[in-house]
Structures are given as structure tokens and as C-alpha cells.
């Protein structure tokens, strides 16, 4: 649905995108992960035809990006793009007018879109009277009002409490059920794990790894990860290596990759004679893959 091939962009001498290539299939939720400055916003701006790439091909539904393809795309920006003193329906009308919807379709779409983000009962409320979660849902409604094929959600849950986050996750799943293709940027790896069928890991303007979670898991030769708390880390690392466990750091946590799952008592017995405060077992998660892929490169 969205095909990006060898996209390059520099600001002056600074190369921000380097042969960036990614594919998003119709109806999937694609998670674009990357640290601050990795190039996510630059990529989004090029997709939305707000910025020109220096080179590369980019098509949406096989049409090259242009003013005409703008209508196929809806974007919910990181910062809410809302007029705080206007009501929910006035905000949506404003954006529907920008997309040139005629009055009849506009009114139908404003109602339907407010219903789809669960804000129909707040249609006449000024934005400034809504909770943070409601404002974020209305910001997503802005991206939906003209019935786009591709919706870009730029960090849609950053700064929200867990209840508001659950509501947005549910809304994103409903959009997928309606057949809408979604490009989601997020710093929350559990959000990407829960929602995305495909994930791309971006660093320095390059996609370093791309695939489903199951495909990305094959990048780490571990069946399980064990986090160990001990005051005797050097001894624990030396012992673990004897047994073929691969040591890794996740923040200040000391962890080991196990190439095959072991019973807890077997793991404990490997550290016999070393004072261990706690041992916890975890499946391989996106966090571990992300750290591996971005630090290796
Ligand atoms: P964040 O998660 O912080 O939004 P990002 O992945 O979206 O980061 P971009 O905003 O695309 O990253 O920026 C990529 C790089 O390009 C950064 O180093 C940024 O400082 C630089 N950059 C972005 N816009 C410009 C500009 N107009 N002029 C010069 N440099 C820029």
C-alpha cells in the first residue's frame, strides 16, 4: 500500500535519511520505532508531501506522492492540532472543510467520526473542557474525518495515563478492523508489541530490521532471558559464560540469554556459591531485540 524505496534526505551536510526502504501492506498496523532524531518525522513529512526527498521512490496505492495523494492520508500529529476554545464538532468541521468535503458529507462524517472515537456525547463541548485522553482521541478524529486510506499516528499515547492509553489502543484496533492501514510511531515498545503486525527499527535514517515480532525474535539466538540481581556480578558473568549463557545489560539490569529454556532450579544451580538476590525469567521481548539491533549497528 505504501512503498518507500531508497529514500534519501539531507539537511545541509547532515544526512538524515539514508536509502530508507520500507513497505506497508494494506490493512496492517506498521510500527516505526526509533530514538529521538532517528528520522521518523522527516519520513512522515515526506509521505505527506510536506517535504521533498533528495532522491528515492515513494508511492501510495501505486501513485507517486503528490498533492493528489494527500487526500489518501490522515495524520494525527504528536502535538494535538486542535482549537481549544472551539467545540469538538467545530474542530472537525474546520478540518473537513480543508479537505473540501461538501456540507452534507461533512456533517455526516463529523457525526460518524465523533462516534468512532467515542466523543459523540461531547460534540458541543469546547476542547479545553475535555480530559487529556479525550483530546488525544479528538486529535485522531481529525486524521479520520475525510476517510483516508492511510492513517499516520505519531506517538498517539505519549503522556497519557494507562486507562486513556487502553482506550486509544482499542480505537486503533477498531480502525484496523475497518480496513484502514496505519503507520504508528512510538517510543513505547509494549505498545508496538500489542498493536503492530510489522515493525521497522530506524536508526540514523536507515531501517536496520523489519518484520513481524516473530520474525524479529529470530535475530536473537535466545529462547528465554534471565535477569539476575547480585552483588557479585563479575563472578556471575564468569559462571554464566561457562554454561554458555550470553550476558547482556538492559539499563542497569544484568541479564543472560538462554539458548534453551531451563527449569528455575537448574538456573539457580548454575550460580551455586554466588550470592544471588533474585532471578527472574522473561520471554524475548521487543525491548531486547531493539537494544540488540540498535547497539550492534
Ligand atoms: P523525534 O522522535 O525527536 O521526533 P525523529 O525521529 O522524528 O525524532 P526527525 O525530526 O526526523 O527525527 O529529525 C532527524 C534529524 O534531522 C535530527 O537530527 C534533527 O535534528 C534533524 N532535523 C530535522 N529537521 C531539520 C531541519 N529543518 N533542519 C536541520 N536539521 C533538521
Topology, element by element:
Layout: E1 2-11, E2 14-24, E3 29-34, H1 40-47, E4 55-60, E5 63-64, E6 73-76, H2 88-98, H3 103-116, H4 132-144, E7 150-154, H5 162-177, E8 181-186, H6 189-195, E9 198-203, E10 206-211, H7 213-217, E11 224-230, H8 233-242, E12 246-250, E13 253-258, H9 264-270, E14 276-282, H10 286-296
Parallel strand pairs: 3-8, 3-9, 6-7, 7-8
Antiparallel strand pairs: 1-2, 1-4, 4-5, 9-10, 11-13, 11-14, 12-13
Helix pairs in contact: 2-3, 4-5
Bound molecules: adenosine-5'-triphosphate (ATP).
What ions, cofactors and ligands are bound?
adenosine-5'-triphosphate
> Hey, roughly how much beta strand do the residues contain?
25-35%
Shape: elongated
How many β-strand runs? 14
Strand order of the largest sheet: 6-7-8-3-9-10
* Rounded average pLDDT: 94
Helix content: 25-40%
Would you identify the regions where 5 or more consecutive residues have pLDDT less than 50? Answer: none
Q: Please, could you describe this protein's structure?
A:
The structure is a single chain. The chain is of the alpha/beta class and 297 residues long. It folds into 2 domains: 216 residues, Rossmann fold (3-Layer(aba) Sandwich); 73 residues, Alpha-Beta Plaits (2-Layer Sandwich), CATH 3.30.70. Helix content is 34%, strand content 29%. The protein contains 10 helices and 14 strands. α4 runs parallel beside α5. The longest helix is centred in the middle third of the chain and has 16 residues. Adenosine-5'-triphosphate binds next to α1.
